[in-house]
Amino acid sequence: TKGKIIGKAGRNINAFEHRTGVDLDLDMSPTEVRLSCFDPVRREIARRSLEKLIKDGRIQPTRIEEVVGKVEKEVDKILLEAGKKLCHDVGVYNLPVDLMRMLGKFKYRFSYGQNLISHTLEETKIGIKIAHELGVDVNTVKMGCLLHDIGKVSEEVEGSHVELGIKIAKRFNLPQPVIDCIAQHHEDEPFTGPEQMVVYIADAISGARPGARYENYDEYVKRLQQLEEIAMQYPAVKQAYAIQAGREVRVLLEPEKSKDNDVTVLSTKIRDEIKEKVTYPGTVTVTVIRELRGQEVAK
Predict the structure, then answer these.
(1) Do the Cβ atoms of 238 and 254 come closer than 8 Å?
(2) Confidence (pTM)
């Protein structure tokens, strides 16, 4: 099976890694394949795709493209269902579909080792209890607890998760008291009311209880996101993936929007910008790929 995954001259494994942005490590053991990627949703797409390909037995670049495309749609539905369930479990209804889909990403996201869905459910229950006892607006506390970490699943890189959460809340025209809950849950701004204080306290209780969390890897994830963001700012870039734990940035160009000499020019520009803007251990290799395919079907 590993031979099929690798393919002739590494053709299959390269196609899989290019399409998913996930590293495949086949050296762990004869019966084990390890998927490595900082983005948990991307990693889940790769896991499901690889399982389908192995079960089907047909592993080739065109089949990889087809399977990954289907799995992306499946995972999109899973995210939406997970978001709907989270909203239902905390008693929040009528949120925009795109916002619920973002909440569904909590299913695969961890903060300090604590799953975001578990943390959000726990925090919301604590917040509601405190709100009832204090006689403050329960709905504001409920929404604030539900959405306080929404910035952690933003695809943007610039800014803290609090700043990104505020952007998302404003984009969906959420009530100002809820935006204030997001803005103030780490005391980045002075509290504007008791509801915001309750969200802050509930967050602290959930995160600080014994056994809830372990060491931080958020900075590591942010660095990898920053590497991808630097590459993605160029118009000719179709997709960029930070792989090998951030030791390589693989950049895929749109062949219609680029020329062959853009490969060298862009790799130099991206390298220089990474050196200027990113703090990283060791070295970062920038690999720029421009691939043009032609395909016709004989009938």
Answers:
(1) yes
(2) 0.70
